Amino acid sequence: MSRRLQPLAAVLMLSTFSGVARADIVPPTVPPDPPKFSAQSTPNFVTVDDILTFEALPAYHEPEWLTKNFVSTGKLPPVKDRLPKEPLVYKKANMVDGIGVYGDVLRHVIGGRPEGWNYQAGQAQGWGGIDIGMFECLTRTGPLFQLKPEALEPLPNLARDWTWSEDGHRLTMRLIEGAKWSDGVPFSSDDVMFYWNDNVLDPNVTPTNGASPETFGVGTTLKAIDDNTIEWTFRDAFPKSFIYAMAYGTFCPGPAHLLKPQHPKYSKNTYDQYRNAFPPEFMNWPVMGAWVPVEYRPDDIIVLRRNPYYWKVDEAGNQLPYLDEVQYKLSTWANRDMMAAAGTGDYTNLEQPEGYVEALKRSAEPDAPARLAFGPRTIAYTLYPNLSANGWGEPDVRAQAVRELNRNIDFRKAITYVIDRKSLGESLAKGPFTAIYPGGLYKDSPYYDKASTVYYPFSPESSSALLAKLGLVDTDGDGFVNFPKETPGVGGQNLKIIITGDSQIVTDTDLMQGVIAQLQKAGIEAIPNSLQGATLTSTEQAGKFDWMLMRNVGSELLTVVQNTASLAPTGPRTSLFHRAGTDGSLDLLPYEEKMVDIVNAFILSSKDPAKRVELMKDYQKLYTENVNGVGLTEYAAALVIGKRFANVPPGTPNFMYNWGEDSVMRERLYVPKDKQKDYELHPASLPGKPGMSGGPVQ
Ligand code: GLA
Ligand code: CA
Q1: Ligand 1 atom closest to Cα of 131?
Q2: Rg of the chain's alpha carbons, rounded to an integer?
Q3: C-alpha distance from residue 246 to each of 127, 213, 334, 461, 470 (Å)
Q4: Is the pLDDT higher at 688 or at 211?
Q5: Distance in angstroms (rounded) separating the CA atoms of residues 547 and 130
Q6: Nearest-angstrom CA–CA distance, 601 and 98
Q7: Cβ contacts of residue 297 below 8 Å, gap of 6+?
Q8: For residues 363 and 341, what is the distance between their CA atoms, to the nearest angstrom?
Q9: Residues 458-472, buried b or exposed e (16+ Cβ, 10 A)?
């Protein structure tokens, strides 16, 4: 009798349960509006023409000590001869504090260390904006945060302008004419072609920040027309998004006159020797940027002095930069925050909300050395499911069973319903800083549309109901749901999900703890796999995770126009969390196929802004309705900079189109005379000859 009754009872229970379940699932809604707060500053929105132009001015100026010690003594040509025919001119009206004065130092602090100066062959200089200040790129994106959405386009830079052929397959770029490297050697299309042919296209070289031929489109070619003109040919018509990719960090050519003789194609060097040919001790490395490294003391400091050949000026003809020196203290990233608050450093990107309240309090004190301005909410964290079921990352039986669940919309919904985003955000920082983030495009993205955003509100009951529907119930009474009996290999065992994340950053570990506790409450056993550095990156890249909790690394969900292709699995390796399996194929879910179509259509619709807006509405709907990623929180970060600096653009985000160090336009920052400090380590000196024994010269 009992044998017959049991299954019957089970069936009865199940049907009652699913009846209840349906009634219990809270319907989705739109996400609540984010809180506003007064510490958040907003940009003065403008067009590219309001920011800069290229033109010859009647007269040019430079610091007095430079004229006196270098030009009058015949060590350097006059400033007008060091500048290009038509330098890049910053418009005064776009500079909040106007035309500046020369002098003083910007003191950065970084956690990284320089490997050497061969940026184009993959060496890092220690991050924190040091490379951004040294290497100039064809176009520029950092300052785009202040462009009117309808006027959004990359800023011209080394490429002063560009024109499309009628069919949209050819793009001709005019380079700045007559500009020179910081050692006085002319810059030309040779530098650009050496970077492209012998670094980007050479499979043995991986430039810093990973430029590859695909970054500029499959099948794309580049050639030089003359010294100052280059021509791109693209497979598709009008792929304007590649112009964004020609900015930092993927198209910043190095000095071919130093690099070429060391490249294996033109020397007996190995690729390793080429990469390492210019160690950090090599001083006065020629740059197109505003400052040149003149001193290096390991684990202590890098000092950079003004580039006497810098090719940008203000409207009054003053050669930039205004700041004569930049220092990079070699310390830790945590110290960067502390030193900026204490006034022993001048700059930080404050981005861990755990410290916001304290930092705001400090900056409100009248004697505080630094100002703190929050920008838009440009940082977001997402919990990403591994959506591959055909072998990416070689899952074992348990992991494969998790992958199958991940591919089930009810399971992804069950996960999203148990995330209490409000309390997650408040656990990082009390106050208005964080906002509920359902996933997908950020609220501060120019393409965000609230009505197209599907938000599954916090509802543990809905989650339990969905889990039960999937047969995921706690059959052994230990508080965690078990796999259904019939699941191959793991039937009846507790469902265990391993979440991979970063162990070094406090916000990442705080969110990991919070998410695991919330999943636990809903009966889902989640185990953290917290890793760091290269181990973390290689684990993620290899697909060896069930879920991963991460700060959205790229800016595609924010700016959309950058890294657009990675908004969906458009290629075998473009998505972070769904790549091709062992047979090289992508097992896309139907909604993912639709997202891929939308993203491809977006890339090719640069001539139709209205269509782009509609496409992104559809994208957002698909993303959020299908819980493509489980959004956790999105929040504002603050740019902290010494109060003595003028011309800090209002609303500068610490990350958006690029890092704050680029967006703030350091070459235009200045310190009014009465506020200038005595921080220069090499006053009245300039970079000397490039080489191992070089230093600054007076
Ligand atoms: C590091 C820092 C960021 C920013 C970048 C600039 O990644 O953590 O805040 O300064 O360098 O490249
Ligand atoms: Ca159990």
Answers
A1: 12
A2: 27
A3: 19, 12, 31, 49, 47
A4: 688
A5: 34
A6: 42
A7: none
A8: 8
A9: bbbbbbbbbbbbbeb
Take residue 633 and report the two structure tokens written for it: 């929180």
**Spacing, Cα 471 to ligand 2 middle (Å):** 12
In this structure, the residue with its CA closest to atom 5 of ligand 1 is 128
- Check whether 688 has a pLDDT greater than 50: yes
Q: Give me the residue label for tokens 């400052």.
A: 291
Indicate the pairing of strand 547-551 with strand 312-314: unpaired
**Block residue for tokens 């003065």:** 44
Pocket residue to mutate for ligand 1, from 326, 328, 349, most atoms within 8 A of Cβ: 349
Q: Which residue's alpha carbon is at the smallest distance from atom 9 of ligand 1?
A: 349
Phi (first) and psi of residue 58, to 5 degrees: -60, -35
3-state class (DSSP) for residue 552: coil
Q: Are 291 and 134 in contact (CB under 8 A)?
A: yes
pLDDT in tens, 164-213: 999 999 999 999 999 999 999 999 999 999 999 999 999 999 898 878 88
Query: Would strands 347-350 and 525-531 be described as parallel, antiparallel, or unpaired?
Result: unpaired
CB neighbourhood size of 2 (10 A): 6
Is residue 349 lining ligand 1, measured as CB closer than 6 Å?
yes
CB 154 within 8 A of CB 140: yes
Give the pLDDT band (50/70/90) at residue 22.
Answer: low
HSE of 664 in the Cβ direction (CA atoms, 13 Å)?
A: 28
DSSP E strands, 386-470: 434-436
Any bridge partners for residue 6, and if so which? none
CB 424 within 8 A of CB 514: yes
Pick from 119, 352, 659 the residue to mutate for probing ligand 1's pocket: most ligand atoms within 8 Å of its CB: 659
Residue with tokens 């989640």: 526
The C-alpha torsion from 355 through 358 and 364 to 370, rounded to 10°, is -50
Are the CB atoms for 414 and 470 separated by under 8 Å?
A: yes
C-beta of 328 in contact with ligand 1 (< 6 A)? no
Decide: 344 and 510 in contact? Cβ < 8 Å.
Answer: no
